[in-house]
C-alpha cells in the first residue's frame, strides 16, 4: 500500500484538527486496521518524504501553508480485554488500538467499573496519542495506568513492545514527544477491577480523588473514594465550565486545549514571584534512573530526550542540580500579565478562551498565523512581566513561536 494507490484525496488539516487551522498536505493515507497502518507507514517511510501522524487532531496546530509530505491518519479501532493473571488480583488489562477515541475508552471502562482513568474523562483525541504527552487532568495521568505500547519504530521499521518505564513519561511529555519517531499501534493499560468493593460497598469506586477542585465539586476530601460514575460526571461538568469538552455549540472549545504548559522553575526563582502566585513543589527525581534495555531506547532518541528535559522542559529558571523545582500556574501568569479571558488582538479571529486563559481559540476563520500571533503576544507579556517564557503544549507543524 502506498499513499498514491491508497487513492485518497488529501483533506485540509483544518478539517482534521480541533483548532481548525492548517493547509492541505501533499498526500494522505488513512489506516483503519493495524496491518494497513504498518504497511502504509513502511511504504511512506520507504519513499523518503516527510510524514506526520495524526489521530484526533486535538493537540496539533498546523500551518496554513500545507504539509510537503504524507499525513498518516490513525483510525484503527478495538478494545481487547487481556486474560487475568493470578499474579495481579483485581487488575484488568486492556489492549487498545491507537485510533480508538480516548473518551470512548473511558466510557467503556467506567461502564464496567474499572478505575484508573475516570478522571481523564472528556479529553479529546485518540488513545494512541495519549502516551505522547502523557495526558493528565484532575489528579490522574496516563502514566499511572499505562503498562506498555506496541510501537512501529521509524528507525528499524519493526514493531516493538515498549514498557511504560521506557517512555520517559512526565508532565505533558514523553520520549515520543521529544524525538522518538514512529507510530503507537496499541496502548496497554492496567485498571482496577473493583468487584470486591462492589460486594462490600454496593458500587464500583474510582481511585482516590487526587485534585482539590474535583474533591470540592464532589463534596469530599482529597484522597476519598466515591462512585466511579460520579467522578466522571463531576469531571465533565468541571471541564465544560472551562471549555475543555469539545462542543460544536461552544466556540471556546475550538482550541487545542491548554496552549501553554505550566512552567517548572527553581524554588529560589519561584520565591521572587508575588505571594499569591500558585506554585507546587515537584517531587525530587529518583537518584538512580534505570535506563531501558534495547537498541532502540538506548540510542539517540532517549539521549535527546534527556538533554531536552534538561534544556527546555524545565524553563530557563531551572537551577543547579539539587535545588527543588516548583511548578507554576501558566493561567495565573497570563492573567497577572494583564491578559483577560476573551482577549483578542485588533482585527484577529484568534482569542483567549472566554472561559480559561490557558486556551487559545479560533473564533471562526482564524488563520494559523493569527493563532501564532496571539500565542507570541501572550508569551511576550508573560516574559515582560515575570521573565518566564511559556512553552506551547500542542505540537506545532510548520509554525514557530
Ligand atoms: C478541548 C480540549 C481539551 C483538552 N484537554 C486536555 C487535558 O485535560 N489533558 C491533556 O493532557 N490534554 C488535553 N488536550 C490535548 C489533547 O486532547 C491530548 O493531547 C490528546 O491526547 C491528543 O490526541 P489526538 O489524537 O487528538 O492527537 P493529535 O493532535 O492527532 O496528535 C498529537 C501528537 O501526537 C502524535 N500522534 C498522534 N497519534 C499518534 C500515534 N498513534 N503514534 C504516534 N504519534 C501519534 C501526532 O503526530 C502529534 O505529534 C485537550 C485538547 C482539547 C482540544
UniProtKB/TrEMBL annotation:
Broad enzyme group: oxidoreductase
Catalytic residues of the enzyme: 172, 258 (proton donor), 393
InterPro entries on file: FAD-bd_PCMH, FAD-bd_PCMH-like_sf, FAD-bd_PCMH_sub1, FAD-bd_PCMH_sub2, MurB, MurB_C, MurB_C_sf, Oxid_FAD_bind_N
Record keywords: Cell cycle, Cell division, Cell shape, Cell wall biogenesis/degradation, Cytoplasm, FAD, Flavoprotein, NADP, Oxidoreductase, Peptidoglycan synthesis
Species: Luethyella okanaganae
Superkingdom of the organism of origin: Bacteria
Catalytic activity: UDP-N-acetyl-alpha-D-muramate + NADP(+) = UDP-N-acetyl-3-O-(1-carboxyvinyl)-alpha-D-glucosamine + NADPH + H(+)
Record's protein name: UDP-N-acetylenolpyruvoylglucosamine reductase
Gene3D superfamilies: 3.30.465.10, UDP-N-acetylenolpyruvoylglucosamine reductase, C-terminal domain (3.90.78.10), Uridine Diphospho-n-acetylenolpyruvylglucosamine Reductase, domain 2 (3.30.43.10)
Cofactor: FAD
